Amino acid sequence: MEPKMSSVKQGSHWKQTSNSLCASNGSCYDYEGGLVQNLRQMEGLNNMYNSSSDNVGVLVMKKRVMVVVDQSSHSKHAMIWALTHVTNKGDILTLLQIVSPWRSEGCEFSSPCLATSLGSLCKACKPEVEVEALVIQGPKMDTIMSQVKKLEVSVQVLGLNNSHPTLLNCLCLKNSTEEFVEECIDVLECLTIGVRKQSKGVGGYLISTRWHKNFWLLA
């Protein structure tokens, strides 16, 4: 099934079991010092639990998760991480492909083939998540900011390349992608997460937010 442009539907939930938060796909995360504790604090999830007797411990939450995609491997890693770690049944995953204003020819830059093909892959992997592909021409930051506001994005996920963060920090150097992601984390109104896939020898992901930088998630 092709990814589609559609309106928000009611859906998904998280279930609380002791000290863990379990998604509908079976993934569970520990509150005690884990990433979910930080996400709960950031999003104010403590105030969103349904207090009715027949829904005790169930958090009803509809999310729109947006990922900026391009031809780079790190953007695809971010997309996969968002699909497997952030989205649940009924959520919307928006894949945003931004076309530079001065580059208007060719499939890579002007047609929806990249976003659509990635969207089809996401839909095949997780059919319970609604997937939409957007291709918009314009300045990168302005486009992201406008779409976050227009679509009422809950979580923005951005890929970071695999250059070693410790070495870059020691040398006081940052690549352009890292600087851009940090700017998005600072200025976007929604929860914004930078995702860096670790090397094969280490595994997992390094997660950066406004509150935490290079948080190691071994999953």
Automatic annotation (TrEMBL):
Pfam families: Usp
All copies of domain UspA, residue ranges: 62-108
InterPro entries the UniProt entry points to: Rossmann-like_a/b/a_fold, UspA
Protein name: Universal stress
UniProt organism field: Olea europaea subsp. europaea
Organism ancestry: Eukaryota, Viridiplantae, Streptophyta, Embryophyta, Tracheophyta
